[in-house]
Amino acid sequence: MGKWNWQHSDWPNFTWDRQQIQAYLPSVYHKQGYVAGLVDSLNGTGTLITKALTENIVASFAIEGEHLDATVLSDEIERGFGRASSWDDAKSVGILEGNAAALISNVFDKSSQDLTLHRLGIWQRCMFERTCSPAQIGQPATWRTEDINVVSGGSGDRRIHFEAPSPSRVAIEMETFLNWFASSREAKEIDPLSRAAWAHLWFATVHPFEDGNGRSARAVADLALFQSDKNAVLYPMAPYILADRENYYAVLERTQSSGLDVTEWMNWFFKTLENALDGAITRLNWSVEANSLVTMQPETRLLTQQVRILVLLHDDADQNVISASQYAAINSVSKATATRHLTDLVDKGYLCVCEGRGRSTKYRLSSK
């Protein structure tokens, strides 16, 4: 019996502590239901979806040490998401952000389509090709032809963290995986959340590509979640995986080298999924509150421009203070009007003055 999970004779028949994992399901399902209720109470979620998609793919690339321009990416997603031609539009940009937008849009815009060699081929080209000719569209994925070892250290203290199946096995391994992914969608033996956890681990273990396996594994898990819950687009796991990156790799390594028991991996996956759901609930609760601010009684009602700024300050980690000049630029109003709007928000308890005086006054969210 070899060291790695895929070397076991029962591979890929994973086992796990069912009682331990089943304990997570009520909480996760409850939070999914809460998200659905919040979504139903909103007039629309287009902006929230664009932001979530952007955060998702930015974080997934960052886990691998690759930086994406979030502003450019958000524009590309907004332009292409929800249209059948999103791949064609984004590929013509010829930049990493355009292709990344095509990748994440394909994951969440085509949940009804099976995961196939051709679909994986699109994802693969999105990750690594800056331009794409018409002849390449629809080409299947290209499996790796080299051995893959995940190692660290130098020649004196080299450590092998993982050794993937040999290239000669990849095609049959992926055929088995893709058949399982299709059939398990309606299977009674495995719940949708455990299916997503398995899919992530299984794909990452086969390691079918020369590069991009982690990003693809996370996209596969996203697709699995989205196939069972259309609101999954609003609770991306990648930002929370990035925040726990070291532990993510450690749990993955231990699972891949400790037989076919995947209990630890599934525990980690469910906890991370709950963190993602908690983050989505916080954001959606604020969006519901923001929507109500423009429909209150006249004496307490806020202007659309004011709500726009409150949402920005609440939802953007890089924009936690605002000046009258910034308010004026964002809302296309005069600086005098911006000052009046900001003063009104202070009077109503939504903002407080945090620094400066006169023209240099800065405002931030109050604790209201």
UniProtKB/TrEMBL annotation:
<dbReference type="Pfam" id="PF02661">
    <property type="entry name" value="Fic"/>
</dbReference>
<feature type="domain" description="Fido">
    <location>
        <begin position="115"/>
        <end position="271"/>
    </location>
</feature>
<dbReference type="InterPro" id="IPR036388">
    <property type="entry name" value="WH-like_DNA-bd_sf"/>
</dbReference>
<dbReference type="InterPro" id="IPR036390">
    <property type="entry name" value="WH_DNA-bd_sf"/>
</dbReference>
<protein>
    <submittedName>
        <fullName>Fic family protein</fullName>
    </submittedName>
</protein>
<dbReference type="InterPro" id="IPR036597">
    <property type="entry name" value="Fido-like_dom_sf"/>
</dbReference>
<dbReference type="InterPro" id="IPR025230">
    <property type="entry name" value="DUF4172"/>
</dbReference>
<dbReference type="InterPro" id="IPR040198">
    <property type="entry name" value="Fido_containing"/>
</dbReference>
<dbReference type="Pfam" id="PF13776">
    <property type="entry name" value="DUF4172"/>
</dbReference>
<dbReference type="InterPro" id="IPR003812">
    <property type="entry name" value="Fido"/>
</dbReference>
